[in-house]
Design brief:
Chain lengths: 116, 108
């Protein structure tokens, strides 16, 4: 149980384009979903937290107009990187919880984004 | 930012118990200690979590000191597949911060 998927697993795009990453909880309802970013040889950095049907809460320093998060259902959240630039190249990982922020998070396999 | 402190790396012989320490001296009363591990280029895997009491599940045991300022994750019989970066994190209503973790090497 508690399986989270992400799509795509990797993506290469041109600078200036937008990329959408999907995160799905396959066997449970995700009240809360989280988006993280991880640069090479670094730890995970929380970008934002979203609850189904409400606006995401972004961490300090994360541009909400650049990283659009939609949590439209209890099994799906999307992260759209708008006007991507090479410095946005990173490993993006989502996680989902059936409860609130302090409940166990189950992570997806991650999406590697490369912006040329 | 308050975050946990872990040794950057540890070695453990295959078949032996791996004991991974973590300091979380700034933890608040309602914040949990969670342990995850990440194998290269994959999403983190949940291992175990606790608030005050020691916990055990099929993967590991978690020993939390009485003052809650530190904890130890115990993998009872380490295998080569346990090679990963292990993260100990404090989780509260408004805090989720991953530290740098411990890179655990299992030696054959």
């Amino acid at each position: 149980g508690a399986v989270v998927s992400q799509h795509p697993s990797w993506v290469i795009c041109k600078s200036g384009t937008s990329v959408k990453i999907e995160c799905r909880s396959l066997d449970f309802q995700a009240t809360t979903m989280f988006w993280y970013r991880q640069f090479p040889k670094q730890s995970l950095m929380l970008m934002a937290t979203s609850n189904e049907g409400s606006k995401a809460t972004y961490e300090q320093g994360v541009e909400k107009d650049k990283f659009l998060i939609n949590h439209a259902s209890l099994t799906l959240s999307t992260l759209t990187v708008t006007s991507a630039h090479p410095e946005d190249s990173s490993f993006y990982i989502c996680s989902a919880s059936s409860g609130g922020q302090t409940d166990t998070q189950y992570f997806g396999p991650g999406t590697r984004l490369t912006v040329l | 930012d308050a975050k946990t402190t872990q040794p950057p790396s540890m070695d453990c012989a295959e078949g032996r118990a791996a004991n991974l320490p973590c300091n979380h001296s700034t933890i608040s009363g309602n914040e949990y200690v969670y342990w995850y591990r990440q194998i290269h280029s994959q999403g983190p895997q949940y291992i175990i979590h606790g608030l005050k009491n020691n916990e055990t599940n099929e993967m590991a045991s978690l020993i939390i000191t009485e003052d809650r300022k530190s904890s130890t994750l115990i993998l009872p019989h380490a295998t080569l597949r346990d090679t990963a970066v292990y993260y100990c994190i404090e989780v509260g209503d408004d805090k989720i911060i991953f530290g740098k973790g411990t890179r655990l090497h299992i030696l054959p």
